Amino acid sequence: MSQITVPVESESFYSKLWNLLRSINPIYFVVIVLLMGVAYLNPVFFEPNNFLTFLERSAPLMIMTAGQVYVLVSGGFDLSVGSIATYSVIAAAILANNDPGSTWWVLLFILGSGALFGLISGSIVTYLKVPSLITTLGMLLIVRGIGLYWSGGSPRGYLPDNLRALGRDGLEGIFGLREFPYAVIILVVMGFLYWLVMHRLNYGKQLFSIGDNPRAGRLSGVGVESVRITAFIICGASAALAGILIGGRSGVSILAGTGLEMQTIAAAVLGGTILLGGRGSIPAAMAGALALELLFTLLNLMGLPKPLRDAVQGLIIIGAVAYMAYSSRRTR
Questions:
Q1: Cα 67 from chain centroid?
Q2: What percent of the chain lies above the pLDDT cut of 90?
Q3: Is the dihedral of CA 20, 21, 26, 30 positive or negative?
């Protein structure tokens, strides 16, 4: 009886295919599965206008997560991002007070405020050696207190229509769509910039080096202090930008950014970012944020109660961190 042999070329092809699949971050497969689940429960989900509306809603979390990755890769945390987003909504409404002519200087003020909060947090962590967890927890309370004191504990002022347009309107008549959301355009542009800075410029290499081994980075000539502080500045400005989009979409609320700090960390960890620093990917982290939004949408479509979001989020963080720790031990 003749034996059937498998050609070496076939074995090589399947081996290469398997290695290729293993090299792809698992979060992309998770996103595909969740997309299929949401589409199954909501058949019109993939209609262009509906899907763009979903991306518009997801844009703030994805932008905030990208900013959070910079701090996480440097070996820190930023728990103040949710409060910065809330502050941004409150401050923009009070300062603009429904005056369209004030929109641009208000936007610059809000982005500058977010960068300033990041600068303060980064300086305290870097020069006073206060752990980032404690520093940004304190900053969370400070920024929230400033916003609540300024507003008197309730929503005040109004966001002008041209400012709100950034979060809820779009360009009309493009590709036959009802409108192409401004938030999605901002998401694409900012996502590209985040990716470029972290993965293609020298700053990103320095950021990874200090997150992996600050002492080695310093000995190799990296300005550890300036790189780490810049990461916090980027994160704070990203939270402020996300707050502007949230306010534009949902209006003025003193709870606008509540809980977003944990969602950004969960999304980044889902994307493979290591909490102790030295490893992370902007596209994968933003995919992690998209996966969270898809998961929340799926839970809503299934009719499950909203409090399950917090429980699921906690399980995701624990599971993802456990998986990353296990993978790291296997690699070593």
A1: 6
A2: 64
A3: positive
Write down the pLDDT at residue 327.
66
Burial class, 267, CB count within 10 angstroms (exposed 0-12 / middle 13-18 / buried 19+):
buried
Alpha-carbon distance of 274 to 179, in angstroms, equals: 38
The separation between CA 189 and the C-alpha centre of its own chain, rounded to angstroms, equals: 14
Residues 133-150 pLDDT 10s: 999 999 999 999 999 999
Task: Please name the residues in contact with 228: beta carbons below 8 A apart, sequence gap of 6 or more.
Answer: 74, 75, 76, 122, 125, 126, 210
From the CA atom positions of the chain, what is the Rg in Å? 22
- Each residue of 209-227: b (16+ CB within 10 Å) or e? bbbbebeebeeeebebeeb
Q: Does residue 330 surpass a pLDDT of 80?
A: no
Around Cβ 242, how many Cβ atoms within 10 Å? 34
Residue whose tokens read 């400033």: 146
Token readout for 111 is 């982005």
CB burial class (10 A; 0-12, 13-18, 19+) of residue 125? Answer: buried
Asked whether the beta carbons of 239 and 121 are under 8 A apart, the reply is: no
User: Within 13 Å and on the Cβ side, how many CA atoms surround 237?
Assistant: 17
Least Cα distance to 285 among 264, 313, 258 occurs for 264
Q: Which amino acid appears at position 253 of this protein?
A: S
Amino acid symbol at 181: P
Question: What single DSSP character describes residue 97?
Answer: T
* Side chain identity, residue 281: S
Residue 284: per-residue pLDDT:
96
Task: Indicate the helix (H) or strand (E) that contains 170.
Answer: strand 170-171
- DSSP 8-class letter at 2: P
DSSP conformation class of 205: H
Rounded Cα distance between 254 and 263, Å, is 18
Q: Six-digit token pair at 306?
A: 């909203």
